[in-house]
Amino acid sequence: MTTIRRIEAIPIRVPLETPFSGATFTLTNRATIITRVHTDDGLVGECYNGDSDEELEQIARIVEDEIGPLLEGADPLAVEECWVRMFPVTDRLRRPRIVSLEAVACVDSALWDLAGRAAGTSLHRLWGGFTDTLPVIVIGGYYADAPGALERETERYLEMGFRGSKFKIGGRTPEQDADRVRRVRGVVGDDYTIVVDANQGYTRSEAILFARLTADLGLRWFEEPCAWPNDRLAMRDVRLATGVPVCAGQSETTPAAARDLIALGAIDVCNFDASWTGGPTVWRRVAGMAHLYGVEMAHHEEPQIAAQLLSSVSHGTYLECFLPERDPIFWNLVENRGSIAEGRYPVPSDPGFGLSLDEAFIARYRV
Question: How far apart (Å, rounded) are the C-alpha atoms in residues 367 and 364?
């Protein structure tokens, strides 16, 4: 039987040339962790996960120093058993559970990659194989003061082959944000998908006002419209008052929390994040539950993970990615990244996650 020999975590940090700001955050680096599971017969599973800049080194230490010893000698193809063995690292009360869950997600992802490689098939095929291509949306619309910047950015999306985008709102008044989205619609026309993301920046009343101001713009969904202290009930109110589909889930860390969003009727789309919550194993549990309620599945960013997950289910939506200056890792670390054309992205067909990583890039930005 093949067994796990060691687990390696490689933290990567790439400085961004320009800071990016949304309603509730500003980013100056793109950070991630590459995890490699090495087996006694030489097979290696690898993936990269997350964008937690401040906790980067801590997550890597948990992977190597805590999870590594727990899984040494284990069967890497028994992914569920390995997940159960790992999960107790989340019981450390004096550190944020999301940090421990990200470490579990790193290893869970690498284990699934190894399982796909061992089987000689891509993970979306291993998990069900619903489609081989996905519609893709680019995340942008960050706040910038330069006149015409939003229009120029949107025109660039079209030139790059995108036919949909997610724009940041929630950091200005509903009227100002509605005007920004209206300007975008004026550039792209009607045959273009627009998603908006408030990053929990609005009150309930502000979110309802924004949705009504943009009712004629055909928004695909309204993501995290309301401030976190009462977001479940507030999001349900936004749905019922406006009829605009609501998306959330990325800020939840457990399937139980996602269940509450779904069962309460707070969302139409669940963008649960595998890299923040314990890995693909957990995302797939949530996807099964969402299907029972007629809720669509998305994935918060992470196209290298999301492509295989979303294409494996019948209720998947859009793959999300950033422009190269916002996510230099996706555009430079992945040597065999597929090309975006006519708004679609080909799901990698090589075994596992189907990723070939650039070792020179890793050496340059390794922490």
Answer: 9
Whether residues 252 and 209 fall in one domain: yes
pTM of the model: 0.96
DSSP β-bridge partners for residue 352: 122
What phi and psi, each to the nearest 5 degrees, are found at residue 269? -135, 135
CB atoms within 10 A of CB 240: 11
Same domain, 114 and 134: no
Whether 287 contacts 313, CB under 8 Å: yes
The tokens for 367 are 């922490």
My answer on whether 189 and 263 are in the same domain is yes
Residue 351, domain member (yes or no): no
Burial profile 73-107: b = 16 or more Cβ within 10 angstroms, e = fewer: ebebbebeebbeebbebbeeeeeeebbbbbbbbbb
Residues spanned by the domain of 194: 125-346
Q: Let me know: does 92 contact 65? Beta carbons within 8 Å.
A: no
How far apart CA 83 and CA 93 sit, in angstroms, is 19
User: Per-residue pLDDT for the chain (367 aa), expressed as one digit of tens each?
Assistant: 899 999 999 999 999 998 888 778 788 999 999 999 999 999 999 999 999 999 999 999 999 999 999 999 999 999 999 999 999 999 987 899 999 999 999 999 999 999 999 999 999 999 999 999 999 999 999 987 788 899 999 999 999 999 999 999 999 999 999 999 999 999 999 999 999 999 999 999 999 999 999 999 999 999 999 998 878 999 999 999 999 999 999 999 999 999 999 999 999 999 999 999 999 999 999 999 999 999 999 999 999 999 999 999 999 999 999 999 999 999 999 999 999 999 999 999 999 999 999 999 999 999 9
Residues 166 and 262 reside in one and the same domain: yes
